[in-house]
Amino acid sequence: MRLRSDVTWRRGAGEPGFLFARTSGGIFGLNRASALIVESLLEGCSVEDLVRRVADRFLVFELTARQDVLSLLDQMKRFDLVEE
Prior knowledge:
- This protein is α+β, with helices and mostly antiparallel strands.
- The chain has a single domain, classed as Arc Repressor Mutant, subunit A (Orthogonal Bundle).
- Helices cover 48% and strands 19% of the residues.
- The protein contains three helices and five strands; from the N terminus they run E-E-E-E-H-H-H-E.
- The chain has helices at 32-42, 47-58, 62-78, and strands at 2-3, 7-10, 18-21, 26-29, 82-83.
- The strands form two sheets. Strands 2-3-4 form a three-stranded antiparallel β-sheet, with no helix packed on it. Strands 1-5 form a two-stranded antiparallel sheet.
- The chain is globular and about 35 Å long.
């Protein structure tokens, strides 16, 4: 899974930033966890990699990280921000 080509990640120094979908004009704010997931998607990480990174960074169980990752990816699909 990856960000669509018309989606841009904008962030300031030390801030998680936001996603801007040029086609729809939508702006989607990110928190630290979702910014980590977006950054990892841009690096080409798999869902399993995303889960491990979230679990390690935020010191949560992998089950919790998996639920959070899958929930965010589902939301991103609904807003047409990612593609397979």
